[in-house]
Each structure stands twice: as C-alpha cells, then as structure tokens.
Amino acid sequence: xxxxxxxxxxxxxxxxxxxxxxxxxxxxxxxxxxxxxxxxxxxxxxxxxxxxxxxxxxxxxxxxxxxxxxxxxxxxxxxxxxxxxxxxxxxxxxxxxxxxxxxxxxxxxxxxxxxxxxxxxxxxxxxxxxxxxxxxxxxxxxxxxxxxxxxxxxxxxxxxxxxxxxxxxxxxxxxxxxxxxxxxxxxxxxxxxxxxxxxxxxxxxxxxxxxxxxxxxxxxxxxxxxxxxxxxxxxxxxxxxxxxxxxxxxxxxxxxxxxxxxxxxxxxxxxxxxxxxxxxxxxxxxxxxxxxxxxxxxxxxxxxxxxxxxxxxxxxxxxxxxxxxxxxxxxxxxxxxxxxxxxxxxxxxxxxxxxxxxxxxxxxxxxxxxxxxxxxxxxxxxxxxxxxxxxxxxxxxxxxxxxxxxxxxxxxxxxx
Length: 416
What we know:
Layout lengths: L4 H8 L7 H28 L5 H29 L12 H13 L3 H9 L11 E2 L2 H14 L7 E5 L3 E9 L19 E8 L1 E5 L2 E2 L1 H5 L5 H23 L14 E3 L8 E5 L12 H9 L3 H4 L3 E4 L1 H7 L11 E2 L9 E2 L2 E5 L13 E4 L1 H4 E14 L7 E13 L5 E5 L4
C-alpha cells in the first residue's frame, strides 16, 4: 500500500466533500500508512544509532493527518446525529413557545412576562432575562453532552437550587458473618463526607441581524441553541479539567495530587513515568499498565482514558511486548479509539507532556466526576449595546467536581 495515500486524500478532499463512510475509510487508510511508516522507523532505530530523518518526518506528517481526519470524522458523525428542530414536531407549551418567539423577534415581553408571573418564576426581563422553552433547553443539554468531552463521560444531575450537597460514605459500616441464633454485634458508624457542588453562571452572547429576526422561516430556538452550544462546551471543557472552583466548576486536575502509594480521600492519586517530562526509554507501555491497575477492578469496567491530541499522538506510537500497537482506531464511525482496550476521550484542555505534568487521566468518570446543571436557560435581549445587531445574553448555571476520589487516577511525567 502506498504510505502517502491517506494524507494525499486528506489534501484533496475537505470534510464537507466526504460523507461519513468515505471519511471513515480514509481514516483507516491513513492509520495503515502510519503503522507501516512507524514500523519502518522502529526498524531503522534498531538497525543503527538513529532513525532516518525523512522517515521520522513522514511518521509525524501522517500522524498529524490522522489527527485531522479523526477530528473531521467526529464532526461528520456529530452533524449526522444532530436532530432537526421543526416547529411542527416539537413537544411543549405552544403558549410559551409563541411568547418566547415574540420576545426574541421584536422584544415584546408582555406575554412571556405574564407566563413567568403565572408560573411564579424568579427574575424578569430587567434583571435576568426569560426562560427558553423546555424543548430548547433539552436540545442544548443534548448537544453539550456530545460536544463537551468530560460531560460526555461524567455523571450529570439536574437541580433546582443553587448548591447540591451530597453525602458520601468514605468508609462503610462494618459487616461480617454471624450464626443464625448468635447475637448481632453493633456495627461501626459510617464515615461520611459532605461534598458541595455550587452552580456558577455560564454565559454566551450571540448576535443577530434584523433581517434574521424578521425572517419567519428561521427557527430562532434552533438558532440560539446552535449559537451557544460551542461556546458553552468550550468553557465547560476547560473548567471540568482544570477549573479552580472560583466562579466556575472545580476541575479534577485542580485537586491535591499525591503519589498512589500515599493516596488518601480528598486527593487524586497518580502513578509516575520515572522520567522527567517523558516516557521511559525501555518498556514505556509498562507505565500505562501501572496506571490501569492503580484503579480498583470495580472502576475499571467503565473506565476511559482522557488526554489531548498531542499526548495521543505520542502514545499512538507505542507497542506492547508482542509488537501490537496499544492505540487502536475506532471500529465504526462515531465510536472512540481504544488504548489498551479502554475508550480514549480527547480533551484539548488536558495539559501537554512536560516536566511533572499530568497529561493523562484514567478512570470511571461516571462515578468519579459530577456535573450539576441548574434547570433553566435564560435569554436577555439587548438591542442597544451593539447596534445595528441584537445581542442575546444567554446564561445557564453549571457546577462540577470530583465526587469519588478513588475513581480517577493520573499519570505524572516525573520522578516524584
């Protein structure tokens, strides 16, 4: 097979020209080209002191093309599953829908203000905007689950209050075997920790022209959800990974990190590569195996790897002791690549490989990380700040943090 066939096709066709099946076929061809070129590079390294510069550059070029094709493939898959929002198919309150549409198009808030008052809803157009229809809020939530990498694997809970307080049993009650007629000793009291997840305001401010608002064919519900979803997903993604908890969720990398041998509740454990800013020269896959087995068996069943694109490119070149690549492409469009048999989630907000960095996370994020959504997405219409455009200040309240510190492990590129 021609090793350059994958990248060549990428250069001659854009994502818009390829349907999902063709894009997946090109992706698999590029992976085969990458594997052949990387095998050639490894053979050269074994045969002499250093690899051929041309071969090394070829591997890097194909690896970059593979990343770009994977991103294009994901985008095509996402567009394919995007539900079409048609007015006649929607389920919800037609009264609220009509009132919200009138407010969006002309600023007439009389109907929607009356509905908010009738529903005893807090806030008004002057101090907080108005709630979008329920189906629009649901659509935004569905799209965020697909776009936001950590949200897609974490637990998500909706609340109506500003703070979710959740008790968690750090050490369960004592249990044991006992004879049928023997006395039952009193069990120890469980040790509980109260976790708090405050919701913080996340906002986006799309702009619309007068002609867009006057066009009755344009579905403004679909327009507002499409405009805000990318902005919300980008901000959420960064906060869920490394947020400091001040006016934003607390990311799992912002908790105290300790070596796995010293792990205690309230901190996130890590394993070490043993080399500062790099993988070990010999048997580099062993550190990934150590990270997998740092996680208890009950958590490994639903575990995912989390890393950014650059880290994934470095890991993609690794083989196991039998010469098999640890990284495997997705088996079908819309599915995730696998690393050592576990799904790999690409989160661009994860740090790059560097001295003492933790660019790789592994764990059951469904049990380990909790995303808290406060019900209600609000829109405030602003026709004055950016004339002749109309701004729509759209807000939702989101919180997040680690809920089970035993469910997430990190790989630290360092020695201590």
